[in-house]
Design a protein that fits this description.
By secondary structure, the chain is of the alpha+beta class. 35% of the residues lie in helices and 26% in strands. The strands form two sheets. It has a five-stranded antiparallel beta sheet, with helices on one face. A three-stranded antiparallel beta sheet has the order 2-7-4. Strand 5 and strand 6 form a beta hairpin.
Length: 223
């Protein structure tokens, strides 16, 4: 590269100047190609599509329509949407939303982690017991006791302690399945649309329902 301003500069200085100009050009191009930054969080209630009452059943809800709705409202064109479950007995996954596959999922998952024999689930299996379901031995430590207090249970009162134990479900298998499936997914957004396959949907898997649940949606990117 030669011009009057660079004729007497060392090669390293010319190279630095060229790189600086290139960086400035890229920055200007990028800033004109993208819009305002977006960083929004939404907490959304997902009504169950299955009849109640809760019976420790496994069900699947399609989150794709509600994510698309809030994505459109955000105006985000490029970025990422992160979906997170707000429960310890639900999971987030990406797969096909098909009713018979949902039945296969429920059957397969309950084979992986069958419900405790003390569970109210129709699939409760004799001989299966989990430590988490020994409700009368919980909370087991001061740390766990403090967590109960932080969540509004005065377990230092024997009657309140018993009330807490009475409402605790026998659902260790649901927790274990939630850990296996995972609690969140991050999906790229390009030109205002989630980058997922033709047959893919973002799914909420309720492993201890059916119940209305909540998910968090965070949109991070640019308009």
């Amino acid at each position: 590269i030669w011009n009057a301003s660079t004729a007497f500069l060392a090669p390293s200085q010319v190279e630095f100047g060229h790189r600086k100009n290139l960086v400035e050009l890229l920055a200007a191009t990028t800033s004109s190609a993208i819009g305002a930054p977006v960083c929004e969080y939404k907490q959304v209630t997902i009504p169950t599509s299955q009849p109640g009452p809760p019976q420790q059943a496994i069900s699947v809800e399609d989150l794709t329509p509600v994510i698309n709705l809030y994505l459109s409202e955000s105006g985000m064109k490029q970025g990422t949407v992160t979906v997170i479950s707000r429960h310890t007995t639900t999971a987030i996954t990406i797969n096909e939303r098909e009713s018979r596959l949902a039945k296969d999922m429920a059957r397969y998952f309950l084979q992986l982690a069958p419900p405790d024999e003390r569970s109210s689930s129709a699939e409760a299996k004799d001989g299966v017991k989990y430590f988490h379901n020994d409700i009368d031995e919980r909370p087991e430590s001061e740390e766990e006791a403090e967590r109960c207090r932080e969540n509004g249970w005065d377990i230092d009162d024997p009657s309140k302690l018993q009330a807490w134990r009475d409402q605790e479900p026998i659902n260790a298998h649901s927790h274990l399945l939630s850990m296996l499936l995972g609690s969140s997914e991050s999906i790229p957004v390009v030109d205002g649309k989630m980058v997922i396959g033709q047959w893919q949907s973002v799914l909420l898997v309720d492993l201890d329902g059916p119940r209305d649940r909540t998910v968090g949606l965070q949109f991070t990117g640019f308009q």
